[in-house]
Amino acid sequence: MRYVIVVCIIALFVIWDGLYNQGRYLDRAVREANGVVRLVTG
To answer: What mean pLDDT, rounded, does the chain reach?
Structure first.
């Protein structure tokens, strides 16, 4: 049940971000994640 709630929250955030912010926060999160992956993988 916890996982369902987490997935719903993430989905709502993605929809909200896309509708009201043109995906600005999601785009930044993806860039940050890519930077972390590059640091870890060298």
So the answer is: 92
Contact of 25 with 17, CB cutoff 8 Å: yes
Residue 22 gets which letter from DSSP? T
Cα angle value 22/32/12 (rounded, 5°): 45
Rounded CA-CA distance 9/25 in Å is 15
- Where residue 22 falls (left for φ over 0; alpha for ψ -120 to 50; beta otherwise) is left
Helices and strands in the chain: count of H runs, count of E runs: 2, 0
The pTM of this model reads: 0.63
d(CA 35, CA 21): 22
